[in-house]
Amino acid sequence: MEKFNxxxxxxxxxxxxxxxxxxxxxxVQGASKIENIxxxxxxxxxxxxxxxxxxxxxAIGSPEYFGYMAGLIKDFFDRTYEKAEQITIGLPYMIFxxxxxxxxxxxxxxxxxxxxYHWKKVYEHFRVVGVPREEDFAHVEEMGQTLAAGVxxxxx
Length: 156
Ligand SMILES: Cc1cc2nc3c(=O)[nH]c(=O)nc-3n(C[C@H](O)[C@H](O)[C@H](O)COP(=O)(O)O)c2cc1C
Fold this sequence. Notes:
Blueprint: E1 7-13, H1 19-31, E2 37-43, H2 49-53, E3 57-65, E4 68-69, H3 71-84, E5 92-99, H4 104-117, E6 120-121, E7 126-129, H5 134-153
Parallel strand pairs: 1-2, 1-3, 3-5, 5-6, 5-7
Antiparallel strand pairs: 3-4
The structure holds flavin mononucleotide (FMN).
């Protein structure tokens, strides 16, 4: 059961082939090391406006498809922007992207949209090119732990 006043981080992702899902699961593993944090972990298509409005930190994981973020990540932004933009100002966020050979398009476009929400970048965006290696998983795990620890401590 959710504890009174427990802080929440929202981890959303899209993954057609399973790679970003694995990275997102690893992010959650890292976040889970911090006590007193509730994690909402969902594919972007299932994320509700309420999930966004109740969280104190968000991580977004996307593949790059056709030089852009996954369509269902864009759909999440389309569905939430009007209701959330005034309420989530300053929300700490992190991005991780996995791509076959680039990934910069996805990152740039997510960042561009996030500017409209006025969220706060709290970690360098992470881009994996090709099949993620052990050190990439370690990095994403560290990102998760960092976001959860920062939110828990209220340092953002
Ligand atoms: C339809 C489609 C479009 C893609 N477009 C790009 C692209 O524009 N740039 C790139 O670097 N990789 C591209 N890729 C490769 C994926 O970004 C990469 O395989 C990624 O790891 C897929 O993540 P997933 O397994 O979680 O779906 C594309 C893959 C697919 C299926």
